[in-house]
Structures are given as structure tokens and as C-alpha cells.
Design brief:
By secondary structure, the chain is mainly β. The protein contains four helices and 22 strands. A hairpin with a 4-residue loop joins strand 19 and strand 20 (254-261).
């Protein structure tokens, strides 16, 4: 116990508050301070995401125009997810889907899934060995449907300015469920402006679409705010397990780095000889997921000796009616019959 203080919160700790007014009215927030200059605002009513990140009073994250929005306002129709997209430092996307709205096996899947608008059912925290450890449980479960749980642990150091996020996804249902997850991390002013320096030590960079390809040589350069700007997105591949992205603001002499296991995060490294046969359908006009990703996945399956077929569907986008053409159905049925006979 530090003899100079009366309460630990003089230096560090976790405080729970509720917002009053606006669309965030009633939302629980956890203000976490580590005593070294780092502050986080965590939102248990939004999957335990991180709404704000500050370092020595400097804002590091982006807050979208809608601000805090309670899950009661969430609209799962099409792209209406954006109406409650707080952004913040972290918004978790998934678990049933990420990316553009689409229809899968008759189910309409919203933009970036619904997990970010699910409140935590359980929240607790404790102090241990120089850490503030926060536990949260989020359930995405429905009768006669998917039953997925996100178990999240955020470990905030009180010895240095760093924190870790550990997520476990559990399927508590009685059927196999597809799962997708995306960590939507958002840097903001004054950390981010046209003078910010971006570093991503990737082995390869791919543009998401033709618009991004036109300026790929400047992927690491930030630009001034521009009216009507169309985003440019790039996919980075790493040569090993260590994935990293960092941003530095020379005018403030501050920055941050995000580290992750690039192999664990990639579907390519989940492929083994024991996975079942795969049929991959990909639209040639898909601007959400590049064709190159399906090709790379297909080649990895073949490399592991897994039976796999890749069908390119002309003019199809990311999951539209062209996937239901008779010729496509015939190929799927033939594939299923073939593997059923081989098993």
C-alpha cells in the first residue's frame, strides 16, 4: 500500500458511470486510468468496446458524428449500422458477418454484424500484479438459431502505457456456426492528421478496389479532410506471426502501436489436411472482399491436400442473386454428390 495516498483511485483504477441525455442515455461506461497517463473509456453496453483512448490528455481515437448510441437504437436493416457506429478506438464487428450487408442461406446479414450493439451480460474487474483486468461476457444467442458468446478480457498495465485484449468466442449451440470477427480500430485527431506517420511492416499490400489501386504508392500517407472523399482501403500481409501497425504524430511527439498475431488472425493459417472439402464461390464484381483472397485460400487448401473448387461468378457482387443461377446450383449439387461418394 502506498503510504502517500488514501485511496488507490488517486493514481489508477476503474470507475463506473452512466450517461445522461441523448441517444447514449443510461449507457454504462467504465473509465479506466492506469496512473501513467493512459485513460480508456470502455462501454459494457456496447460489447465492451473501447470508446475513447487518451494519453496524457491527448485524444488518440475517433468519435463519429452520432456519438454514444445505446443498443436500443440499433437498426439491423442494411447499412443502418452506421447510425449507431460510435467508432471510438475499437468497435468489434461480427460475429455472424463482417463487411457489406448480404444474404446468406436466406438470412439477411447487416453491415458488420450485430455484436457491437449487444450489451454485456456480465462485467467485473480486479487488480493483479500490476494490471487492471476487466472481464466481460457478451451473448449473441437466439432460440432455434445461432448461439455464440464473446468472452472478453482487457488487461491494462499500471506499470507502463499498454493494454491487451483477449477474446474467446464460444459456440454454445448444437450446430456448427460460421464466425467472422473484425477489430475496427479508429485513430483520431490530434493524433491523426496529414502530418501523421504510418508504419505497417507488411510483406505485401493489396488494394481493395480499383479506386484504391490508383494511389497505392501513397497508402502510408495521410491527407487533409476533403469534402466528398471516397475512402481507400488496403490489405496488408505479413511474412510471419508478428503483425503490427503504428502511427506517430511528430507535432505532439506521441504515437501508438498495435500488435497482433498475424497468423492466428488469418484464415490461411487455420487450414490443415483435416479440414473438410471446400467449394468457394466468389463474384467478379465483389468490391468487399478481393478475389485474390479467395484464390489464396483455395491454393492453401490444395497445398494441404484438401478437395477444393473455386468458382468465379461473372458480374456477381458480395452475395447477390447471381449466386442463385441454375448453372451455379448445378455445380454446387455436382460437388456435393462427388464428395458424398468419395466419403
Amino acid at each position: 500500500m502506498n503510504p502517500y495516498i488514501g485511496h488507490d483511485s488517486q493514481l489508477y483504477g476503474v470507475e463506473e458511470h452512466r450517461l445522461v441525455g441523448g441517444k447514449g442515455d443510461g449507457m454504462r461506461i467504465l473509465e479506466v486510468t492506469n496512473g501513467k497517463g493512459m485513460e480508456l473509456v470502455i462501454t459494457p453496453d456496447r460489447a465492451g468496446d473501447i470508446a475513447r483512448l487518451r494519453f496524457r490528455g491527448i485524444n488518440m481515437s475517433y468519435l463519429s458524428p452520432c456519438g454514444y448510441v445505446a443498443p436500443a437504437y440499433y437498426d439491423s436493416t442494411g447499412s443502418n449500422w452506421l447510425k449507431s457506429f460510435t467508432a471510438g478506438f475499437l468497435t468489434t464487428c461480427g460475429l455472424q458477418a463482417v463487411g457489406s450487408p448480404c444474404t446468406d442461406e436466406g438470412e439477411e446479414l447487416p453491415l458488420h454484424g450485430s455484436i457491437a450493439n449487444q450489451p454485456c451480460e456480465q462485467v467485473c474487474w480486479r487488480e493483479e500484479d500490476g494490471l487492471l483486468v476487466l472481464h466481460m461476457l457478451v451473448k449473441d444467442e437466439v432460440i432455434f438459431g445461432r448461439k455464440l458468446r464473446l468472452e472478453r478480457e482487457i488487461r491494462v498495465s499500471t506499470l507502463e502505457n499498454s493494454f491487451e485484449i483477449h477474446d474467446v468466442i464460444r459456440n454454445t449451440g448444437d450446430r456448427v456456426e460460421p464466425v467472422e470477427i473484425l477489430y475496427h480500430m479508429n485513430m483520431g485527431y490530434p493524433l491523426l492528421d496529414e502530418d501523421s506517420r504510418i508504419r505497417i511492416p507488411s510483406a505485401d499490400v493489396e488494394p481493395r478496389n480499383g479506386h484504391a489501386a490508383e494511389d497505392i504508392e501513397n497508402w502510408m500517407h495521410m491527407e487533409k479532410p476533403t469534402a466528398g472523399y471516397q475512402e481507400r482501403c488496403y490489405y496488408h500481409k505479413f511474412s510471419g506471426r508478428e503483425g503490427q501497425a503504428s502511427i506517430y504524430q511528430p507535432k505532439l511527439n506521441v504515437g501508438l502501436a498495435i500488435s497482433f498475431d498475424a497468423e492466428e488472425a488469418s484464415a490461411l493459417y487455420q487450414v490443415t489436411s483435416s479440414v473438410p472439402p471446400h467449394m468457394i464461390l466468389h463474384g467478379t464484381n465483389d468490391h468487399t472482399v478481393p478475389m485474390e483472397q479467395s484464390v489464396a485460400y483455395y491454393e492453401k487448401l490444395v497445398e494441404q491436400g484438401v478437395r477444393a473448387d473455386l468458382i468465379e461468378i461473372e458480374r456477381a457482387q458480395h452475395g447477390d442473386d447471381l449466386f442463385c443461377q441454375n448453372q451455379v446450383k448445378d455445380k454446387v449439387i455436382a460437388f456435393m454428390r462427388d464428395i458424398a461418394g468419395s466419403w
